[in-house]
Structures are given as C-alpha cells and as structure tokens.
Design brief:
The complex is a heterodimer of chains A (about 120) and B (about 110). By secondary structure, chain A is mainly beta. Chain A contains no helices and 12 strands. In chain A, the strands form 3 sheets. In chain A, strands 2, 5, 6, 10, 11 and 12 form a 6-stranded mixed beta sheet that branches. In chain A, β10 and β11 form a beta hairpin. The radius of gyration of chain A is 14 Å and the shape is globular. Chain A starts with a strand and ends with a strand. Chain B is mainly beta and about 110 residues long. In chain B, about 0% of the residues lie in helices and about 50% in strands. In chain B, strands 2, 4, 5, 6, 9, 10 and 11 form a 7-stranded mixed beta sheet that branches. In chain B, strands 1-3-8-7 form a 4-stranded antiparallel beta sheet, with no helix packed on it. In chain B, a hairpin with a 2-residue loop joins β5 and β6. Classes of the chains: A mainly beta (about 120), B mainly beta (about 110). Chains A and B meet through β5, β6, β10 and β11 of A and β4, β5, β9 and β10 of B.
C-alpha cells in the first residue's frame, strides 16, 4: 500500500533561516511520482514540484531545493533564507503509475511558520 | 487562462440532507479528481473521472457519487450527510498519466 509520512507536524523559524521539511514514502511500485504542494490559508493547494521514480537528480528552484533519495525512500524539501510569505502548510504526495499516476496519497502536512 | 474553479465556496447543511458540489477543470484538462480534507489533515482521495466515467475510487462509501460532463466539468454528490462529512472538498484537474494535478480553492462544507 502507498503511504506518505511527514513526521514534523509544525515548524517555526525566524526569517532568513534555512528550513528542511521531511517526507518519507512507501510504495511497492517501481514507477511512481512524488510531489510537493503548498497550502496557504486561502486553502488552494499550489503545486511546487514533481519527480518521477527514475529521476533522482536533486533540483533547485530559487530559494527552494529538493533532495530525492530512493535508498531511504525520502523526498525532502529545503527552503533557503525563509521569508514570512513561506508560512503555509506543506504537503508531500505520492502517486503510483498503476493508478494512472493520479490517485494521490498525501502526507499529513507540515505547518511552517516563518516569524519576522 | 482560468484555473480550476469550484462552487460554491461555502455550504451549510444539516444531517441527512444531500449536497452537490461543482468543479470546472483547467482549460485543456480532461481528468477531474475529488479530495476530502478534514481540518488539520491531508487531502484524502475520493474518486477520479475520465471520459465521463469513474476511473478510480478511494475508500469512501457509496453515499459519495459523482459525474463528469462532456465539457469535462464535474459534480460531487453526497447523500445522507453525516456530521463527519464536514470538510474542505477539493477538486483537481490534470491531463495524461502521472501529470501534475492543479487544485481549486475548494468548497467548505459544514454539516450541522
């Protein structure tokens, strides 16, 4: 069965600090997709990144970076020099190719508070 | 280019009633998925519609049903509402397998 764990329920940091959000997943499929979404107070889930299981390259996008390690089934997300606008709930999600890659299983989320 | 739109934004119902939520997918998307998000939790997959048929279903009772129209818009119906159905209902659209799902702002349903 597919499962996503985000062990950090809440994190508070002061602006300009770096912060890493952890994500550990479980799947029996060899082909799967991993995602990160941001949910601000407005409620809409905002897409941040997608990774497929064959692409273990780390990615950097501005202040955001992602570390995908199949050996530890982890897909961690780091925000460098955090800003108040980064305050939100962040979700890691997994979908398996046998489900057309579209039946998302979400983790419980990590609430990030960035204090000025 | 309009994103995923959902209506209504908020809804208040009483136990036993029925409710219909609506979703218009992002332009060019043919697949619509519905999720239920209880307070403080991650979204839970309800079901997915593709080519006007339910293609996949999560662990939700038959009280939850849906429909997809030829223009790819979709409805979620919940019958015999329970207090536990109170949640944010999110619609997501996508195209092709393994592709990014784009979410609407959701409908917040309160069952009293």
């Amino acid at each position: 069965a597919q499962k996503v764990t985000q062990a950090q329920t809440e994190i508070s940091v002061v602006e300009k600090e770096d912060v890493t959000l952890d994500c550990v997943y479980e799947t029996r499929d060899t082909t799967y997709y991993l995602f990160w979404y941001k949910q601000p107070p407005s409620g809409e889930l905002v897409f941040l990144i997608r990774r497929n299981s064959f692409d273990e390259q780390n990615e950097i996008s501005g202040r955001y970076s992602w570390n995908f390690q199949k050996s530890t089934s982890s897909f961690n997300f780091t925000i460098t020099a955090s800003q108040v606008v980064d305050s939100a709930v962040y979700f890691c999600a997994l979908s398996e190719a046998r489900n057309y890659g579209q039946n998302f299983v979400f983790g419980p989320g990590t609430r990030l508070s960035v204090l000025p | 280019d309009a994103g995923v739109t959902q209506s209504p934004t908020h809804l208040i119902k009483t136990r036993g009633q029925q409710v219909t939520l609506r979703c218009s997918p992002k332009s060019g998307h043919d697949t619509v998925s519905w999720y239920q998000q209880a307070l403080g939790q991650g979204p839970q997959f309800i079901f997915q519609y593709y080519e006007e048929e339910e293609r996949q279903r999560g662990n939700f009772p038959d009280r939850f049903s849906g429909h997809q129209f030829p223009n790819y818009s979709s409805e979620l119906n919940v019958n015999a509402l329970l207090l536990g159905d109170s949640a944010l209902y999110l619609c997501a659209s996508s195209f092709d397998e393994g592709n990014i799902q784009y979410f609407g702002a959701g409908t917040r349903l309160s069952v009293l």
